[in-house]
Inverse folding.
């Protein structure tokens, strides 16, 4: 096939593709607050939530972030997003649950953290709420999963919520509008590369 | 099992987990510039890259972003990250390839865009470079994939690069340090919800 034929074929194929995509955009006409669940073992669940924080701030939206497991406060995400005037940032963890090794303490910490989230989930002024690593608190039974799901369902209708963490439950997936499952195809960590600033923290 | 027994068992299980994790952290002692590939059809490839932009800026790193397909400049990501002093933001596309329907124009646009990336990939001052939606340019043959992969391999050794886009090739995955494949389990778009500010743009 010569270049002219190649270019013509490309034009025709893309015109068909455009017609399909335009039709699907025309069908998608609703606006609503979305519940997004980012799960799986791969790289990019929290990063993706933080990217949406940036996007939202770019549109002048008010954002609240709850980090449920992390206790360190020297991360790049907090240093950067935490200082933005429209972004409220809370580091609510005691460290990973294998650091504390104390289930009662983890439950108390989780419940204190959830109270912060509850305040955001009942206030329509927060247009995006990130509940980072929430799945662990649900899966370990540190929070009452039914109650948490009810509170998510009853949030202000235009509020977006992003939940991150491995092993999101079936019930959480069902409630969500968008679910992305991030597979860990390959990770530098397994080749002996430590967590890198800017990438992992 | 009563609560005391439950708590003890938890403590023992978590102590074992901590020992395993500590050992694996001790093994991961290298620092290097990572090549991350975020691919798959699910939500969160570009968002995740932008989250790493935020993290990097939080550590005072210099960041360069090339958006290869997008032509719109009203996105939240550009409004927010583009104004940060350590972040250089380039919207290099003519729109999606089904918008232009012109293969020769797409090739010319891609090559002009790649020249911007080349400047970053040869300058160690850029500590993170995001090549957003690069895979499409490679998969459509708008850029020479072998040459692009060579240039990625030869970049400054401490420079992190994040490549996003569907259908990353086997060769690109092989070159990468970290590969995350984001599966589209569920997407609000299919329920008729339009792209939402803060979440999708």
């Amino acid at each position: 096939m010569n270049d002219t034929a190649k270019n013509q074929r490309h034009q025709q194929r893309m015109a068909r593709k455009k017609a399909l995509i335009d039709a699907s955009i025309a069908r998608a006409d609703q606006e609503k607050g979305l519940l997004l669940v980012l799960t799986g073992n791969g790289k990019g669940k929290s990063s993706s939530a933080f990217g949406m924080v940036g996007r939202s701030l770019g549109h002048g939206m008010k954002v609240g972030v709850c980090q449920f497991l992390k206790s360190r406060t020297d991360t790049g995400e907090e240093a950067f997003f935490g200082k933005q005037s429209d972004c409220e940032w809370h580091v609510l963890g005691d460290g990973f649950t294998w650091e504390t090794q104390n289930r009662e303490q983890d439950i108390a910490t989780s419940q204190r953290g959830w109270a912060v989230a509850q305040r955001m989930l009942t206030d329509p002024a927060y247009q995006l709420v990130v509940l980072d690593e929430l799945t662990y608190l649900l899966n370990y039974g540190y929070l009452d999963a039914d109650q948490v799901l009810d509170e998510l369902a009853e949030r202000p209708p235009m509020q977006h919520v992003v939940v991150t963490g491995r092993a999101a439950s079936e019930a959480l997936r069902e409630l969500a509008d968008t679910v992305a499952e991030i597979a860990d195809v390959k990770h530098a960590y397994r080749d002996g590369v430590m967590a890198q600033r800017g990438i992992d923290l």
User: Anything to note?
Assistant: The CA atoms of residues 62 and 86 of chain A lie 5 Å apart. Helices of chain A lie at 3-27, 45-58, 76-81, 97-100, 103-121, 134-139, 145-153, 170-175. Residues 3-27 of chain A form the longest helix (25 residues). Chain A has two domains: 1-30, 31-191.
